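Per reviewer request, we include the raw input and output of the structure prediction for the construct analysed in the revised manuscript.
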Amino acid sequence: MLIYAIVNEMNKWLKIWEYKDLRNKIIVAISLLLLTRVLAHIPLPGVDLARLQTFFSQNQVFGFLNMFSGGTMSNFSIILMGVGPYITSSIIFQLLGMIFPAIEELQKEGEAGRQKITQWTRLATIPLAFIQAYAMLVLLRNQGVIPTWTTFDLWVMLISVTAGTILLMWLGEIISQKGIGNGVSLIITLGILSSYPSQIRNTALILQSGDTTKIIGAIAFAIIFVLATIGIIIVQEGQRNIPVTYARKLRLGQTTGYESTLPIRVNIAGVIPIIFAMSVLVIPGVVAKYLEAAKTAWLANSATSVSNFFNNQTYYAIIYFVLVFAFTFFYTFIVFKPTNIAENLQKQSGFIPGIRPGTETREYIYKVISRITFVGAAFLSIIAVLPFIVQSWTGITTFTLGGTGILIVVAVVLETMGQIESQMSMHTYERY
């Protein structure tokens, strides 16, 4: 039965190439994604690449940023900042929508409002990319990775890196419109996956020594990797369906009802809490690295202490865990507001069986979301600090089991597969 199910599933996916428009979308997406990897290996001149890669490998914060950029930082690529500034801009406008009613109204206006916010997001990406590129270049110069530059050299690098981010943003939007899946998410996913081949090769070289401890550690590492992936898939797909009954009026004053459900996902917030937590952790680490070269002794010493504190895996992991847990609750209750849901149900003549409309419904939904979010927040926090736990248990440091990376990859793969299956279902429906 298992073999039959696998063969049947393979045959279903092979049918993708029977549909010309779906086939073209996949080809467009793959072609543009390969182009992003070519750009990732075009370096800017004037840098010691060996020293640069050592810097990123020895720093927790910057190593994480390098993973998200797909290695573009350690390669000193023309797309040095990746799509980071665009993501930052998107998060800023999402948060602004929670503060300013005018932006919130635009978000609710449908396609026209979303297009206007998207345009603002694109425009805000340009100065953000310029500022972040300048901060990174100055930081690398202070670490001795980049030699002293002339004003002309600095402007060339800043313009090149900013243009690289805008180019990636544009390619991501083309993939979303002309290809399949979310373009920006796919670029990030490919960047994360691109580091795995070299890590696997380095791990294999260590295992060739025949060290029994390393071999046992590698086997344990592989088992944890598989279990983490399965767990992420279960949590990502998991949801609680709250039954809802909607009253419908019929002729002659009669009423009837039809049943529906209110789905609440276990991980409503997705990877946003991790991104928020990383943003909070990156700021002091970056500022400390920048101030280590300060001429004032006490300031330089304080910066060094802060930098050493954030390089301590235990302290870093504890703070990271707490921040991810807190931000999961924070973001979930901003996106999923029990008061608004209760009001909308009442306006639509809907009610939860056994629960009175209004205040009781709001309190019931709040309780359900709190319990589910607790599980989701705990799981997300564990996934965030998984690399620190696994490396300390197995002793394998050549392969980074990035729980955050796996979470992003799994979420994007599931979303893309869902879109492909939806497209295939449409073709099947049209055929019949």
